[in-house]
Automatic annotation (TrEMBL):
GO cellular component, one term: plasma membrane
Domain ABC transporter: start-end pairs: 3-248
Localization (cell): Cell membrane
Similarity comment text for this entry: Belongs to the ABC transporter superfamily.
Main location: membrane
One GO molecular-function entry: ATP binding
Alphabetic keyword roster: ATP-binding, Cell membrane, Membrane, Nucleotide-binding, Transport
Membrane topology designation: Peripheral membrane protein
Name this protein carries in UniProt: Peptide/nickel transport system ATP-binding protein
Organism: Microbacterium invictum
């Protein structure tokens, strides 16, 4: 399945904040959207699933496996979310429901999209918790988000996004709120899961060093416009735009690994 974005524009309160963004994500490709705060990368990601704020409007074209997503009714978009396209947000503390156990939250999309019962969903939740390397999965699925560490909450969010084995994963700065050691673990986990499932990945970040660990191609944004795109190896060795050159200078040295994404 392929994602095709053409001339995407997003307006909020009459102001255009994303303007003419175009890129493709082929089957099993790993593409990054990168830029500084306010560049439009997260809004672009939200537009892919119709999750823009109420006062925002999107124009242009977003096609998933040939189906136009802009203007698609919410009910049909909801059928895609979690089933064909999964999403992991930046801050799991706000993405997870504080009054429901993590097992119920992992199993929810399975019950919705696969129609399985409560007991089967719980068993699958345990298996998904184990898959993202959560300790003692039988016990941890009974816990609530506040009883977990930040890294464990993010693993729960990843398990939720991947439970139905989507063909595309959107990860919106999923390591920003974590310390450096846990960041590296989460990046390793995401890379392994994406490879194991053969899914496509859209990874949003402001950090070129982080992106080099999970993506092979990048789209660089500034003030809502694409200023450069190409293989990560090219952006690391011969960036053509001042924006990319600045991102390269600011790359997080502690996560730098020669060779880029594997």
């Amino acid at each position: 399945m392929t994602l095709e974005v053409r001339d995407l524009a997003i307006e909020i309160g009459g102001r255009r904040v994303v303007d003419g963004v175009s890129f493709d994500v082929a089957d099993a490709a790993r593409v990054g959207l990168i830029g500084e705060s306010g560049s439009g990368k997260s809004l672009t990601a939200l537009a892919l699933l119709g999750l823009l704020p109420e006062d925002a409007t999107a124009h242009g074209s977003i096609r998933w496996n040939g189906q136009e997503l802009i203007g698609l009714p919410d009910r049909e978009l909801a059928e895609l979310r979690g089933d064909e396209i999964g999403i992991v947000f930046q801050e799991p503390r706000t993405a997870l429901n504080p009054i429901r156990t993590v097992g119920n939250q992992i199993g929810e999309s399975l019950r919705i999209h696969e129609g399985i019962g409560r007991r089967a969903a719980r068993d699958r939740a345990v298996a998904e918790a184990a898959r993202v390397h959560l300790p003692a999965p039988e016990q941890i699925v009974r816990r609530y988000p506040h009883q977990l560490s930040g890294g464990q909450r993010q693993r729960v969010a990843i398990a939720m996004a991947l439970a139905c084995r989507p063909r595309l994963l959107i990860a919106d700065e999923p390591t920003t709120a974590l310390d450096v050691t846990i960041q590296a673990d989460i990046l390793d986990l995401l890379r392994a899961l994406v490879a194991d499932d053969g899914m496509s990945l859209v990874f949003i970040t402001h950090d070129l060093a982080v992106l080099s660990q999970v993506a092979t191609h990048a789209v660089v944004l500034e003030e809502g416009r694409v200023v450069e795109q190409g293989p990560i190896s090219t952006l690391l060795t011969a960036p053509s735009s001042p924006v990319t050159q600045g991102l390269l200078r600011d790359a997080t040295a502690t996560l730098w690994r020669p060779g880029g994404a594997r």
